[in-house]
Design a protein that fits this description.
The protein is of the alpha/beta class and 298 residues long. It folds into two domains: 24-144 and 236-281, Rossmann fold (3-Layer(aba) Sandwich), CATH 3.40.50.2300; 148-235 and 284-295, Rossmann fold. The protein has nine helices and ten strands. The chain has helices at residues 6-19, 46-66, 85-96, 110-122, 150-158, 173-185, 201-207, 237-263, 268-277; strands spanning 31-39, 72-80, 101-105, 127-129, 140-142, 166-169, 191-194, 215-221, 282-290, 293-295. The strands form two sheets. A five-stranded parallel β-sheet has the order 2-1-3-4-5, with helices on both faces. Strand 3, helix 4 and strand 4 (127-129) form a beta-alpha-beta unit.
Length: 298
Amino acid sequence: MRRFGMFGRLALLVVCAGLLVSCALPGDAAAVVKIGLIAPFEGLGRPLGYAVLPAVKAAIAEANASGELGPYRVALVALNDDLDPQTAATQARILAQDDAVLAVIGPWSAATAASAGATLSQAGLPTIVVAALEQPAAGVRSLCPAATELPSVVSASFSADPLRQVRFHPGDAASAADELLRLAAAGWQGTLIGGPDVARPWFIGRAGRAAEGTRAIVCRVEGTRPEGAAPGEHDVTPALAASLASAAARAVLGAAAQEIAGRGRPTRAGIAARLSAQPLAVGWDWVQVENGRWRWPR
């Protein structure tokens, strides 16, 4: 049939509506679904946002080109949270109200992930964050082990040297830098240990020379430690963030592809179920400040 008349087109639309599936009409573009990304793209956290954005975009482009998504194509909706919990919650509400958004990657700090996670969970939006959380909301998965594990990791790593002064800081990079400067001014000469939110480029810029020797626990998924990052001259943390972002995007896109292959169409609930069934081998790694850069310990 060389021409698809108006009445035939209308009839096909009715069939599609009745079956509650997405149909592509002759000459129409592929059906588009969306993945949200919440990250800091302005202000202090800008280096983090622009480390993870290209990694997520590349994973989406690869999935779209591979054909694994069938008649669907994925578009990215990237929103800035300024590393601010209230802004992150607002961006989460924006994504939740868009029915085409089927999953979210981020936010990227414990405070922003906890703030946005409640909203995303209530909306049934499957979410992968890269933050050490006390208790993730339903449907929110983290590429970090639980925050409650951090103190025991620090204790196990430094218990062999009881004379070494160690102070653990569970907060963010800015507050850790401020605490370190206060301690240094008081003559303290120990080692500050931070959680994943401390291992950021702006920690060093804020703490200056006092940052030397600081160590931080970072999140790791099997295979996400960037190769060739040590002992180079560059900060390893942007490459690590990009690797984790890529892992999160691949997990979401893989779940969407499974839903399309198995059920014909992706939904929030279906992707959430697929993600919950995926094993994610998460764990810890260490970085430390050497010569003004975050590096893998030697």
